[in-house]
């Protein structure tokens, strides 16, 4: 992969994305919600599913696939029916429409943001330094994967995915707020504090996905199935369908990453989680509060179950083929670029602190030698 040509394709891809979203924006102004608007928008949804295939970079294709093929496509389908985040404000500007469609953000008026040197809702510079250091430590541990137990490596990969998502989305959040005065929706809500699988998947983990799947899949399926199956069974069926749709989209993201045909293990993981959520909810209703597990115990059991099943069915699929080697090659390229930036005064002035500047340089100098993992 030539880095320059990949960057050009990445820029071209996102230019196509924003041109398509501009078309959808004006379609919304001219065409009433319903089947006709859906007919006009469906070609864009198909295009968004195909666009990440133009990219070969792990991070470019994975990020574009998640933001565009999944999030933007579902938002546009809801928009066609006058639902979801894109339909909530008829006076929304083109810039905010494109940002809200293509990024995991919610619109916050600029004038409502308190102008301070560091807005309270944004992370301090040290947060980024700590996360960068954590990723450097994870990378260092990857270098010793032959000495680590296979199960430990699987859990390490789970932690790596969490760190990468959290860091990436926080960077996007800061850029969105600085540029347009819009707020990134939270991706995580202290998942380690969860007390149940239902709470973990519904209110702790992947909140952007939950916020889209609920109105796009769960609510319409429950509404239609409740009349045939009854409310309780309708809810159970809707939960399983929602986890099934999530499984399909995760299989698609996995294909963008490794370009290998799915084995069905990712689908099995999400269907297992859905079935366990249904069983857990039924058990809670049956007990009706008569017997409660201490929250710390239930949190530990929930996290253990999610991690163990993910390390068995989900994570190994994401690291198939040459994904791991390509990923660290990209880290090394980014690290070299950042190292060249930190050698000048721009990085120092950006952080406004010699100590943070020094801290970042130490992280990078620690990380670079161990990123060329074959």
From TrEMBL:
Keywords: Acyltransferase, Lipid metabolism, Membrane, Transferase, Transmembrane, Transmembrane helix. It is a multi-pass membrane protein. It is found in: Membrane. The chain crosses the membrane at residues 6-26, 38-55. GO terms for cellular component: membrane. One of its GO terms (molecular function) is O-acyltransferase activity. One of its GO terms (biological process) is lipid metabolic process. It comes from the Eukaryota. Residues 185-271 form the Wax synthase domain. Its main location: membrane. Belongs to the wax synthase family. This is Wax synthase domain-containing protein. The lineage of its organism: Eukaryota, Viridiplantae, Streptophyta, Embryophyta, Tracheophyta.
């Amino acid at each position: 992969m030539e880095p320059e040509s990949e960057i050009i394709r990445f820029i071209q891809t996102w230019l196509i994305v924003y041109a398509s979203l501009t078309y959808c924006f004006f379609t919304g102004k001219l065409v009433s919600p319903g089947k006709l608007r859906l007919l006009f928008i469906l070609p864009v949804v198909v295009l968004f599913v195909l666009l990440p295939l133009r990219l070969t970079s792990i991070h470019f294709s994975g990020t574009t696939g998640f933001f565009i093929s999944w999030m933007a496509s579902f938002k546009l389908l809801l928009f066609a029916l006058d639902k979801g985040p894109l339909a909530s404000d008829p006076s929304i500007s083109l810039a905010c429409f494109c940002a809200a469609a293509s990024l995991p953000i919610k619109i916050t008026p600029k004038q409502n943001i308190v102008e301070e040197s560091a807005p309270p809702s944004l992370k301090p510079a040290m947060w980024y330094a700590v996360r960068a250091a954590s990723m450097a430590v994870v990378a260092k541990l990857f270098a010793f994967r032959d000495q680590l137990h296979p199960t430990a490596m699987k859990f390490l990969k789970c932690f790596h995915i969490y760190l990468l998502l959290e860091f990436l989305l926080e960077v996007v959040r800061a850029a969105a707020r600085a540029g347009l005065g819009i707020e990134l929706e939270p991706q995580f809500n202290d998942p380690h504090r969860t007390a149940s699988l239902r709470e973990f998947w519904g209110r702790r983990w992947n909140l952007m996905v939950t916020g889209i799947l609920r109105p796009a899949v769960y609510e319409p399926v429950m509404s239609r199935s409740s009349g045939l199956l009854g409310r309780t069974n309708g809810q159970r069926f809707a939960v399983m369908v929602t986890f099934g749709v999530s499984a399909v989209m995760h299989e698609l993201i996995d294909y963008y990453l490794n370009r290998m045909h799915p084995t069905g293990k990712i689908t099995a993981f999400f269907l297992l989680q859905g079935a366990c959520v249904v069983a857990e909810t039924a058990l809670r209703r049956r007990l009706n509060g008569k017997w409660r597990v201490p929250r710390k115990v239930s949190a530990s059991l929930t996290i253990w179950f999610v991690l163990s099943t993910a390390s068995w069915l989900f994570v190994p699929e994401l690291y198939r083929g040459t994904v791991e080697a390509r990923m660290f090659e990209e880290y090394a390229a980014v690290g070299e670029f950042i190292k060249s930036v930190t050698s000048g005064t721009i990085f120092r002035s950006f952080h406004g602190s010699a100590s943070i500047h020094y801290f970042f340089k130490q992280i990078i100098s620690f990380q670079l030698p161990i990123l060329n993992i074959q």
